[in-house]
Amino acid sequence: MGWFSRPAAPVSHAALLREGDRKAAGAAVLLSRNHLLTCAHVVNDAVGRDLLCAERPTGEKSLNIAFHGSGRASQYGRARLSVWVAPEPRSGDVVWDGDLAVLELEETAPEWATPVVWRDMTEGLELRAWHGGGVGITYADTVAGFRDGPGCYLDGSLTGAAIGPGYSGGPLRVKSDRTVAGLVIAQVLPGQGPLRAQETVRRSWAVPWQTVRERLTRAGAHDILAGCEVVAPDHLACTGPAEDSVRQMVPLLRALLDDTARRADHCRHLAARLGLEAPSGGEQPVPTLDELATLLLTEERALATLTESLTPVVGGYGGDRRTLNDLLALGRVEPTVRLLSVTEHEQLHTALLKVAADEPELIPRAAQEALRLLELPEALTRSPRLTMKDVDTVVRALEEYPDGRGATAGSLPVPALLRLTEFVAAAIADLDRRWWLRAWCERVAGRLGISVAALEERRADAEAWAARVPAPVAQVIVRLHRAGAADPDRFLCELWLGHKDGGRTAVATPECPLEPGEIGRLIRQTADGSEATRVNVVVKADGLDIPVDEWNAGSALGDLFPDLAELSTPLGGRYQVTLRCPDLTGSVPTAASEMRRRWAAGGDGTLVVDESSHDIMSLHKLLDKPHRDTARVVLHGPPERRQQLLHVCLAMGVPVVLWDRDAGSHKDAPRMDALDPTGPLDKLPQRLQEFRMLQYAASASDGAARPALIWEEGELALPGPLRLADPS
């Protein structure tokens, strides 16, 4: 690279170890900080099964893995099987298809083990593989040959090591650029096929990246693939930034670092922090400004690291500070430039790891408030607890997020990452750690040119949030959407805690469709954690028949001990499960005001819809005149008419509607007598829970009632349907 040079990067290796002798069953590829890719037959070998066994290994037993690196002590850990693509023998052939397995690491991979960068495999690529044991001398050079369906043959020269046992599952690194083009599968053994032994001395085969991507996509590993870095072959030669960007940066660097001694000091410090080497002799005492600008626009933390050392020199005011601000402004529009310096990133990552270990719910909770106008990273929304292995992913994602809210006049807005850090600091229990996080924010804000007043505004917001005592939880609000016609028994689910003051707190939920039992356990875990007794289920007009009250809620003991799973109770016996349908109540402009008026009238009286009023016109007349103040309607009758009458009740603002989902005609009306449907209105949800509890305990027969209850409470508003993003 010139004045800045990169030392030869040591290659790290990963291996899957056999349970018996702890030797390498094969190699593996580091997909991300949390995932390994290897061959399914390597997993089979590690657990002592036949190599080509197609069945997914049963149980949750974790596998032994090892990381090896040049000059590094080997690091061992455990991983669990996440994705399984079974080996598929091809009739009459010596090779097979499939044969992939993704493992999820129990602890993040060591810092020196770098996730691979993928590229497509093409014929003629010169490749290098290593044995899973990681010994440097085991490297084997080979060349990509004929592409045969999903696989690709490899041919090696007759010198050096050959691909053999223990190489399977390892990455095939492109020698010219260190990208990875595929995965080693196996060697072609003599006597296996139509070729004679001397014709297959160094022939093996591999799975190209193209096939890996297609097979893992088919296996549902979209989220894992989304985190993989991939480059196109025609972009591999493009290693530098745009000429315009360099041209704009050079005058600013000249104004700050025209003095060669000053430039040399700062550039040597920069090289040391980035792990680069600077010249030791006197041939070139300083880099050129063009070379420095290229580095700042290529290495992701170079600009932040240089400005970190320049900030104390230029001070907080004057021409040099303005020039430094302009330099940072250029960096903000470059996609390769990151917010934090090497030191700032290391410090924050270490601090947040401790927070995630001690208070795993704090960071997601703070993010919900600190960044409520932004779409949060997936790691902050899929669970109310942030795992330690996701901390770095969150930090790197939020470095790219702006925060344009309430910036003080004349100051830059406080970036989202600093805002979140202030909120975490305000709520953290450890006072020393709170002081450290705030000091870190002040240092980073000072380097970025953010005014003290702007940061103080964010700190005041954080302190006000941390001091706020939320109102008691009144209920859990659940919004359900059917996943679609192709998957009718699964649902998209959103959860909130509804507070007595009308406020709501969002609960992190998976974005993928869930089965009823999964949603039941999620509701139970949320309700138990908040001590709520009411579960309010929000459905669309076509979802009023969803039997949420009958869904299995699991149990805390059952979560820990599968043998105690039978201790679980359906949701309707554990909580007061009621329904709401804003699709219908919101379809008529007067429905909401009518609902408030009926509640205000006291809610006395009940309209029981029997055969005498079992048509739309008759029901409308009753609700419009003699029952204008009635808040409760009990519907009987056949389901095809009952659905229409239910819609009329909601459109006319009736807040409480009770019916039997399983009733076939008016003759089934007595089935609900034990519920006392016309008894005291305020106790109806409780009576319904007790009725359901008795029915579940008695293993109700087909002739038992399956009551459903709409309960619309105006003082506990529903969450809105809109999801807003920060306009910036």
Nearest-angstrom radius of gyration?
32 Å
Spatial sequence of strands, sheet with the most strands? 1-2-3-6-5-4
Helix % is 25-40%
First CA to last CA: what distance? 37 Å
Count of DSSP strands: 23
Strand content: 15-25%
Class from secondary-structure proportions: alpha+beta
- The number of helical elements comes to 22
Uncertain segments are 234-238, 721-728
What shape does the CA trace take?
globular
What characterizes the major β-sheet?
6 strands, antiparallel, barrel
Mean pLDDT: 84
Give the helix/strand layout.
Elements: E1 12-17, E2 24-32, E3 35-38, H1 40-46, E4 63-69, E5 75-89, E6 96-105, E7 117-118, E8 126-129, E9 140-148, E10 151-155, E11 171-174, E12 180-187, E13 203-208, H2 209-218, H3 222-226, E14 229-230, H4 243-257, H5 260-274, H6 289-296, H7 302-314, H8 319-332, H9 342-358, H10 362-370, H11 391-398, H12 416-427, H13 431-448, H14 452-467, E15 473-482, E16 491-499, E17 504-507, H15 516-530, E18 534-538, H16 556-560, H17 571-574, E19 576-580, H18 582-585, H19 591-600, E20 606-609, H20 616-624, E21 632-635, H21 639-651, E22 656-660, H22 684-697, E23 707-711
Parallel strand pairs: 7-14, 15-18, 18-19, 20-21, 21-22
Antiparallel strand pairs: 1-2, 1-4, 2-3, 3-6, 4-5, 5-6, 8-9, 8-11, 9-10, 10-13, 11-12, 12-13, 15-16, 16-17, 22-23
